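A.,

Following up on our hallway conversation. Structure tokens first:
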């Protein structure tokens, strides 16, 4: 804290203020306040000593400065008007170090971001989860309705996955899901496309600005990518390795409808793929 006359001359400063400035009392008294403070801490734009500000009962603002160590030091700077013994107006200003609080707030904000990301991520496969998919398809549905562009879905299901778990065990089943998820993620090449774990052994691709023909070709590349993994599946009714059945649907969204209709079409196509012997792509 220090006391400054309206002509910006420092009258006195307490020990905490001297420590902040790195100066002695003799070096501070009688000096211009703006010559002692670096710009971030000296609010020249709205200086408390301006006539329009000096009469206000109390004012405050946040300020920070860079320390030689490279760390940021944060303050709340508050000022109140006063009149010296000889009748000269001035201000008393306090610089309260709030660095610990700011660091705690930053850490909390970072933790909240991490928690929000975790809430949208499937912990086993590290793909976006159903919640993330539901949020994204809603956003894309509205956007593409405005733009009158296609939105495609590819719904995927690992063939005979229950039998896989029964034969190889749930740990092997989890590893199978992880490897399939990685292969699905690698199939996504465009920034706007999204691969998600839909639930259990089901996965889904969201393909904005993609017509049915393009989505069907994409789905077959996905099918081949999983078959190429050559994960043994001795009890599958589709092949000797892990395979996918895929249902594809596409439409131009309407602003007065919901994406459920597109999901239903993709689900119906997936059902037909399974009825057709699995390890295939059916477009709805």
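Then the amino acids I'd put at each of the 284 positions:
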């Amino acid at each position: 804290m220090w006391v400054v006359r309206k002509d910006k001359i420092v009258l006195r400063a307490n020990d905490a203020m001297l420590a902040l400035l790195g100066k002695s009392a003799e070096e501070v008294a009688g000096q211009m306040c703006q010559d002692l403070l670096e710009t971030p801490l000296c609010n020249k734009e709205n200086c408390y000593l301006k006539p329009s500000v000096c009469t206000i009962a109390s004012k405050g603002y946040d300020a920070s400065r860079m320390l030689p160590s490279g760390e940021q030091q944060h303050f709340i700077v508050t000022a109140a008007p006063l009149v010296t013994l000889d009748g000269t107006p001035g201000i008393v200003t306090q610089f309260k170090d709030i660095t610990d609080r700011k660091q705690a707030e930053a850490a909390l904000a970072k933790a909240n971001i991490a928690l929000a990301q975790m809430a949208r991520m499937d912990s086993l496969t590290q793909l976006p989860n159903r919640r993330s998919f539901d949020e994204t398809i809603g956003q894309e549905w509205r956007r593409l309705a405005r733009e009158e562009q296609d939105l495609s879905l590819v719904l995927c299901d690992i063939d005979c996955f229950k039998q896989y778990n029964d034969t190889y065990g749930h740990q092997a089943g989890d590893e199978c899901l992880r490897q399939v998820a990685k292969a699905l993620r690698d199939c996504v090449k465009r920034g706007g496309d999204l691969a998600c774990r839909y639930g259990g052994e089901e996965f889904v691709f969201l393909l904005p600005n993609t017509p049915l023909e393009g989505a069907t070709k994409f789905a077959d590349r996905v099918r081949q990518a999983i078959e190429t993994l050559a994960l043994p599946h001795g009890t599958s009714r589709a092949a000797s390795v892990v395979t996918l059945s895929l249902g594809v649907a596409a439409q131009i969204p309407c602003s007065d409808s919901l994406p459920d209709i597109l999901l239903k079409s993709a689900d119906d196509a997936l059902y037909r793929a399974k009825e057709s012997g699995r390890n295939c792509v059916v477009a709805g």
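The chain has two domains: 2-102, 122-283. Curious whether your intuition agrees with the design.

B.
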